[in-house]
Automatic annotation (TrEMBL):
This is Peptidoglycan-binding protein. Residues 1-20 form the signal peptide. Keywords: Signal. The keyword Signal applies. The lineage of its organism: Bacteria, Pseudomonadati, Bacteroidota, Sphingobacteriia, Sphingobacteriales. The keyword Transferase does not apply. InterPro entries: Pectin_lyas_fold, Pectin_lyase_fold/virulence.
Amino acid sequence: MKLKKSIVIAAALFGTAAFAQTNHWQSKFVSVDPTGKLVYHADKNGDIIPDFSQVGYYHGHKAIPQVKVVKTIQPVEGDALSVLQQAIDELSAMPKDKDGFRGALLIKKGVYRISGTLNVNTDGVVLRGEGDTENGTVLVASGKGQRTLVKISGKGRVNEVTNSRKSITDKYVATGAKSFDVTDASGFKNGDRIILFRPGTDEWIQDIQMDKIVERQGTKQWQAKDYNLSFEREITQIQGNTIFIDNPVMMALDSKYGGGEIFKYTYNGRITEVGIENILFDSDYSSDTDEDHGWVAVGFNHIENGWAKNLTAKHFGYACVNLSSGAKNITVTDSKCFDAISIITGSRRYSFNNDGQQNLFMNLVTTEGRHDYVTGAKVLGPNVFYNSSSTKTHADIGPHHRWAVGTLYDNITTDGDINVQDRGNWGSGHGWAGITQVLWNCKVRGAAVQNPWASGKNYAIGIIGNKLKGRLEGRPDGEWEGLNQRGLMPQSLFEAQRKDAGIK
């Protein structure tokens, strides 16, 4: 009996000590209440860290489906381009089922050498291999030619519905808000797709000092007309002239800088329900600095609700997966980008690149990249990079240039840096890289996180690593909290927000 009692006491003491050593702490910006729900703490303007949960395939509310195989391809000798493209075209001509799928093309294990680009331009097509290893399905970008190996793309662009534009009447709509008032909501209904429009203005450019970039050859000062931002949203509720939307405001709408507007839109030609999975991609190359070879393994554009999962890319010059600006609600998961082949300089080795909206990148691994988890110019969120790592990096992770808006970097581990800063005259005048960029519980060699002089904040919460001063002197510090303090709760903001939203 004495022995049992001692064990109980020892276990209790060990548990207490373990909890004390963990030193769990919560952020002053987002915390968890006694019921397990998140509580958002606003600043003096009413701005909060936004909800990033509604991203990826169907905003996470639908699981990626296991689509039925309707066509199978066996390995072929020589160039497989025409055989594979013909199979894709035949599948694309089949009728869609009740769920919007034509079916899956199963590409059996083996090596397929492809001299050009495979194109998927139709709804409801899934390309499926039998594993992303050397013993699985291997698609090789053969020979020469800088290209995307698999291009998944519809066509078209956002088109404003005539006479649907209405002004937002609030003087200030805070970052994180999911509702606002308009002059007249009578022409809208639940389910309408709208553009939340934030105009660029000269006063805004002046206040963030992007008309004063120190010039070098090729530097372009920012022009207001180039910074009209169009966020895709859906109306979830209307009360009088108050509009409620599915995803929050990612950058405050301030009447001082032109406020905001909404309008209905169409996107004719955009495709949906396309996936690619379980494939190893490789590229021929002639030397470690060869640039005349496969550049992107898989590219998405003009598509909504699609996925890429269980992919590995080796020896490409740019990316495993590249999402262009017309890609929305894409989930990229459980994939790897290894051993890029190129000169190590600009416009190369963007292992997982996102220029679209409401996209999710999770459970990824990279080596030998430059900008492994990265966004480009005027990339409009929410977008999320979650639970991913990079090693042997040659540059930094984060918004790469020109005002990306609303990105969460959650549980990213890198032996390089994550930076959110004024990039100054790098490139052709990148300037401020982003706003509402949230780094949560990331492990880094170093991080520079700065706030622009107007229009919001960037956050570095629970960072393990060195705090860097950034490229340029005199820039305001970002919102830093808990540097090198382990035990941040919740461990993942993204997972906590998904739980709050009822997403499993």
